[in-house]
Amino acid sequence: MSKDYFIGPNKKGWQAKQPGAQKASGIFDTQKEAIRQAKDWSKKSGGGEVTIQGRNGQIRARDTMPPKVDKFPPRG
Fold this sequence. Notes:
This protein has about 80 residues and is of the alpha+beta class. The chain has one helix spanning about 30-45, and strands at about 5-10, 15, 25-30, 50-55, 60-65. Helices cover about 20% and strands about 35% of the residues. The longest helix is centred in the middle third of the chain and has 14 residues, at about 30-45.
């Protein structure tokens, strides 16, 4: 079962949260820490998508964690 995570700003820092969850899986001081932990959790649970939101509210990146297959891999 794959696990997806959403990284976004929070009143206390940065949160890593699963879609549809009421509470964040974790709250971190920096965005970098939140990304690293969400990627680790996703990999350990069978892969998934990690979506990263910037402070301005726009999605700035999406990463597919193995072993989930990326439906739209980059060319090259």
